[in-house]
């Protein structure tokens, strides 16, 4: 392992489950690339793989819900990261309720926020953004249900991505 891979291997960060709804379609996936990108006004960006079923639904959604999972909920990470919405209805298994604009809110999350999609970006100044698209969100509503250590990237390295390569 060299260069950037060595650098990235040293970093650990929270993972999130992002859910979306557009018309009758709903989707959700495990997201490893996300974070606050502005203080004033508050903004958060989530990067969703172009190969992911959730990307298709999120591309037509105006609101996304970003969930922070507690470390004990590896099962939710496995469901939303290891299965693809192209083949299974993840919401038939997971406990959830309709949130803002009907977007699913997972009951097992330690915290979540709904955000209005302000921009979708996979290119910046003519530079290819890679295999993910950034969804810049304006936080609208947030709820914290518990505290503790969130599930992190290192906690979920055993999950093989469910979406097609």
Automatic annotation (TrEMBL):
Short name of any one Pfam family annotated for the protein: Flavin_Reduct
Membrane spanning stretches: none
The Flavin reductase like domain, residue ranges: 8-160
SMART domains the record matches: Flavin_Reduct
Gene3D superfamilies for the chain: Electron Transport, Fmn-binding Protein, Chain A (2.30.110.10)
UniProt keyword annotation of Transcription present: no
UniProt cross-references to InterPro entries, sorted A to Z: Flavin_Rdtase-like_dom, NADH-dep_flavin_reductase, Split_barrel_FMN-bd
The keyword Cytoplasm is assigned to this record: no
Superkingdom in the source lineage: Bacteria
Alphabetical keyword list: Oxidoreductase
Protein name (Swiss-Prot/TrEMBL): Flavin reductase family protein
Native source organism of the sequence: Kitasatospora nipponensis
Lineage: Bacteria, Bacillati, Actinomycetota, Actinomycetes, Kitasatosporales
């Amino acid at each position: 392992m060299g260069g950037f891979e060595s650098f990235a291997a040293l970093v650990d960060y929270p993972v999130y489950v992002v859910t979306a709804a557009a018309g009758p379609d709903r989707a959700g996936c495990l997201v490893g690339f996300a974070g606050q990108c502005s203080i004033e006004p508050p903004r958060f960006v989530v990067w969703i793989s172009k190969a992911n079923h959730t990307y298709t639904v999120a591309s037509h959604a105006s609101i996304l819900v970003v969930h922070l999972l507690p470390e004990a909920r590896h099962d939710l990470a496995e469901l939303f990261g290891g299965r693809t919405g192209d083949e299974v209805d993840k919401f038939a298994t997971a406990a959830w309720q309709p949130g803002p604009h009907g977007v699913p809110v997972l009951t097992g999350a330690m915290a979540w926020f709904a955000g209005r999609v302000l921009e979708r970006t996979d290119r910046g100044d003519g530079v290819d953004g890679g295999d993910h698209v950034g969804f810049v969100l304006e936080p609208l509503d947030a709820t914290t249900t518990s505290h503790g250590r969130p599930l992190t990237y290192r906690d979920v390295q055993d999950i093989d991505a469910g979406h097609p390569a």
